[in-house]
Amino acid sequence: MSTSAPEAVLDATASGRGAPRHVAVIMDGNGRWAAQRGLPRREGHRRGVEALRRTVRAAGELGIGILTIFSFSSENWSRPPSEISDLMGLLRRFIRNDLVDLHESNVKVRVIGERSTLDPSIAGLLREAEDLTRDNTGLVLVVAFNYGSRQEIARAAQRLAAEVAAGRLAPEAITAELIASRLDAPDLPDPDLIIRTSGEQRLSNFLLWQAAYSELVFVPLYWPEFDQAALEGAIAEYRRRERRFGGLAAAGAGT
Ligand code: FPP
């Protein structure tokens, strides 16, 4: 995901009045949804996968180009082993059960996050999902898995430092655009809209670099309750926002 070039800013400004091109979602509240009903947390995550299926379908129907989902964060490893195992199991089942449907729906799967430390069978499934759907031209579904934004930025810095050390790059040639070009998905535009469910109002190490000019919408529903109407509501809120990208409001420009 790149730093906005001037052309991209114009596009994104236009999209501020229309549909967002790139929507990113922090799917929060599975555990609280379950606790409220006296159910185990894993049931909340299982229902969270159903909400994810609904959201992917709705995103396609609403003409969203890119949907990024925060599936498992670098910090989620601090949860109890049984919950980590439930989440890994859900990812395995999601890819095994839904990949063919996603492929038939022309969805292109991309993955961001640190893969080198993942269980090889999980890394293999993520790779399989990307490989199978590589040539698809519909919705781009970006799965943030073992993802942390500070870690992503640190990896980009390591790559640039290695180029400097090898004598291929001068330190003063490092710009915001160059850092953006070494992030995990540099070809994708920054998110126009970031939605977080559950009422929490923070980014929790999600797309910190890419969110510089994203509109943030906080939805007071737990993730298992999220549906097309909720997505449409968040988009309606996004459309009411005025995106200025550090410039002036349209009425004030040129005066
Ligand atoms: C937040 O709820 C959600 C997660 C940590 C993971 C999101 C995972 C899913 C929606 C299901 C898995 C999908 C895939 C593809 C792996 P929480 O547990 O933090 O809820 P809480 O804050 O209420 O405890």
TrEMBL record:
Subunit (UniProt): Homodimer.
Protein name per the record: Isoprenyl transferase
GO molecular function: transferase activity
Protein residues bound to substrate: 29-33, 41, 45, 73-75, 77, 79, 196, 202-204
Enzyme class: transferase
Primary role: Catalyzes the condensation of isopentenyl diphosphate (IPP) with allylic pyrophosphates generating different type of terpenoids.
Keywords per UniProt: Magnesium, Metal-binding, Transferase
Catalytic residues in the record: D28, N76
Enzyme Commission number: 2.5.1.-
Classification via HAMAP family: ISPT (MF_01139)
InterPro entries associated with the record: UPP_synth-like (IPR001441), UPP_synth-like_CS (IPR018520), UPP_synth-like_sf (IPR036424)
Cofactor(s) required for function per UniProt: Mg(2+)
Family: Belongs to the UPP synthase family.
Positions annotated to bind Mg(2+): D28, E215
Cofactor binding notes: Binds 2 magnesium ions per subunit.
